[in-house]
Amino acid sequence: MLVLEDGRRFEGRAYGARGRTLGEAVFATGMTGYQETLTDPSYAGQIVMMTAPHIGNTGMNDEDMESARIWVAGFIVRDPSRVVSNFRSQRSLDDDLAEAGIVGISGIDTRAVTRHLRSAGAMRSGIFSGEDASLTAGEQLDLVRAAAEMTGRNLSGTVSTQEPYTLAAEGERVGSVAVLDLGVKTSTLRYLAQRGFDVHVVPQSITAEEVLAMAPDALFFSNGPGDPGASDRHVDLLRTTLRAGLPYFGICFGNQLLGRALGFGTYKLPFGHRGINQPVLDKATGRVEITSHNHGFAVDAPIEGVSDSSEGFGRVEVSHYDLNDNVVEGLNCLDIRAFSVQYHPESAAGPHDANYLFDRFRDMVLASKETEV
């Protein structure tokens, strides 16, 4: 049974592990890429529903994991594949969910649930199967309404590495980058290494002084789950490193934290952007990119013109925005070396239209090093 906090109930079949799970119900519109979705740490604390009706036919493998484990709180599908048919498959989706203890549900009208979430917004929810399915409707609803809301939650400590580690640069070395792991994806680290960076991944608990003591050539903030409004310490860290002149690139959560560091606010979207086909305009080129998204919060900044940072970082402009709803999808600082995007240029899954942003970051770091010389 899927139970939403407004009392709506949807009956289906148990899928994956049996038991009870609670989280924020959201929908992802990608036709493919369910493995990357499941293993993206940004989905921690969320019960993810796939809008594509047929899920699981390509199974699961070790190559497409975006982290070491499945992070979703629960999984909702309409028609799970009964047969795995792909030459790269190593396991079935159902088996991986069960082994990871991820409670799921199948056989429900995902289109009806999606329409409801679009009108009512993302909300707390629960999946109840096995013995927990025998709880009364009132007991299940009470559990859902007692669960934590996403607003105000700081989840970076849940998903971040506890120990630092390093990926060596591939090809000609450009420099070193300190990556603050707020829920970083494997593909992001790989793209940075391919651009010639020694990638030093550090825990989210690191201090600004410790970052500067590493003497990296640049700083990168990753994607991650939770409310950017609850990450004051990371905002302070970023302000300190920006004032020290460290070049910066941020993705997703890293875009929201740059926005806050510059003096902008953030807010929760009604139902978020989660999918691999979001049209975004790059204002610098006039090019429309089809991009991969996974965010429930956004930066509150004017999409036209140039603003002055209230924190003393000079001029700032919105560099990208979503053509569906005008949500801010990128920030560019004109007087310091810092920029960010809300979406995922590493794709995984999704189109590769925005891979050039990693090249832009490399070029910015090289220009910074030339200036120092």
From TrEMBL:
It is an enzyme of class 6 (ligase). Pathway: Pyrimidine metabolism; UMP biosynthesis via de novo pathway; (S)-dihydroorotate from bicarbonate: step 1/3; Amino-acid biosynthesis; L-arginine biosynthesis; carbamoyl phosphate from bicarbonate: step 1/1. SUPFAM superfamilies: Carbamoyl phosphate synthetase, small subunit N-terminal domain, Class I glutamine amidotransferase-like. Residues 1-172 are annotated as: CPSase. One of its GO terms (biological process) is 'de novo' pyrimidine nucleobase biosynthetic process. Residues 1-128 form the Carbamoyl-phosphate synthase small subunit N-terminal domain. InterPro entries: Anth_synth/Amidotransfase, CarbamoylP_synth_ssu, CarbamoylP_synth_ssu_N, CarbP_synth_ssu_N_sf, Class_I_gatase-like, CPSase_GATase1, GATASE. L-glutamine binds at S42, G224, G226, F253, Q256, N294, G296, F297. The keyword GTP-binding does not apply. The keyword Ligase applies. Small subunit of the glutamine-dependent carbamoyl phosphate synthetase (CPSase). CPSase catalyzes the formation of carbamoyl phosphate from the ammonia moiety of glutamine, carbonate, and phosphate donated by ATP, constituting the first step of 2 biosynthetic pathways, one leading to arginine and/or urea and the other to pyrimidine nucleotides. The small subunit (glutamine amidotransferase) binds and cleaves glutamine to supply the large subunit with the substrate ammonia. This is Carbamoyl phosphate synthase small chain. The gene is carA.
